[in-house]
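Exercise 7b. Backbone tokens:
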């Protein structure tokens, strides 16, 4: 496996995201983006654009013909998320992080950046001649990871962060889940797939472009939030480095080894490890700020883990061979 190439791919993706963080930082530094505009962008990303993102992932990757294989991967991925929640909770309790940090941390464990960084790494790995025969299955499993992550992100991130922050929810979790933008996008995508209704080309292209705007806009918002942080606060937190190492390297490797005890499909296990080794999705900073969590801590955690992932993802692949 070309570890150097994986490093180059991941670094390139990271630099692309960092460019938007810098744009957000400069916009706030020169007062070109007001707080009201940042809040409006945040609402746009967590409602309309997230619904479109879920719809796009489901419409692009779901196939009734591969339903059994897809469900097998989803079950394995969900088991990995349960492991990360349980042991992630124990880890941060030992580190004595407050509830306002606990919610974002757990959300960061179960909502990795699979659609941007994860998919790019998978495409690079399985373009290698030694693995090209497994490429169709790898793309299928990656698609299932993207669907699951986007759906859970849009429906569970907000109540999860609110619960640990001690914020009283205006609606019951089930009601909020049923009417969340992610579920609405999922249902539209499911209906089109089940009834095999194709989208007009122009409509599909417009939805794809809108969905791709989610990550850059979220990174611009992170840049705005970093404007209020000093360099020491961003890079001087030793606990944060330790937490990132566990989240990005140790957890994915352990989950791979545990999964190998019940699953003989190595491609499925490798996709699971790659996806879970990705840094948290950038949109978490928006949810944290609007749900009563510590958005400064979450912003630093997402930013630092995104930086470190250029090293940690190739390291995970090197360990797993």
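Sequence design result:
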């Amino acid at each position: 496996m070309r570890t150097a190439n994986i490093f180059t791919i991941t670094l390139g993706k990271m630099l692309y995201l960092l460019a938007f963080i810098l744009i957000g930082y400069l916009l706030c530094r020169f007062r070109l983006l007001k707080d009201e505009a940042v809040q409006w962008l945040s609402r746009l990303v967590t409602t309309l654009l997230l619904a479109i993102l879920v719809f796009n992932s489901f419409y692009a990757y779901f196939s009734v013909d591969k339903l059994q294989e897809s469900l097998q991967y989803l079950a394995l991925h969900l088991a990995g998320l349960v492991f990360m929640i349980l042991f992630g909770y124990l880890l941060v309790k030992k580190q004595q992080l407050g509830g306002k940090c606990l919610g974002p941390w757990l959300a960061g464990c179960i909502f990795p950046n699979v659609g941007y960084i994860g998919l790019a790494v998978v495409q690079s790995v399985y373009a290698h001649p030694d693995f090209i025969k497994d490429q169709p299955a790898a793309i299928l499993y990656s698609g299932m990871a993207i669907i699951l992550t986007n759906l859970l992100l849009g429906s569970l991130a907000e109540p999860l962060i609110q619960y640990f922050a001690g914020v009283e929810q205006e609606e019951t979790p089930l009601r909020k889940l049923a009417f969340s933008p992610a579920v609405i996008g999922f249902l539209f995508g499911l209906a089109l797939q089940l009834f095999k209704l194709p989208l007009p080309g122009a409509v599909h292209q417009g939805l794809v472009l809108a969905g791709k705007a989610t990550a850059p806009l979220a990174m611009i918002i992170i840049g705005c939030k970093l404007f209020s942080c000093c360099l020491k606060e961003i890079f001087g937190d030793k606990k944060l480095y330790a937490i990132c190492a566990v989240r990005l390297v140790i957890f994915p490797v352990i989950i791979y080894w545990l999964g190998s005890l019940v699953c003989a499909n190595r491609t499925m296990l490798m996709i699971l490890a790659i996806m879970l080794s990705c840094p948290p999705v950038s949109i978490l900073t928006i949810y944290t700020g609007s749900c009563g969590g510590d958005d400064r801590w979450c912003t630093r955690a997402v930013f630092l883990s995104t930086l470190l992932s250029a090293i940690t993802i190739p390291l995970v692949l090197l360990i797993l061979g």
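Instructor comment: Residues 3-320 form a domain with the Na+/H+ antiporter like fold fold (CATH 1.20.1530.20). The chain has a mean pLDDT of 86.
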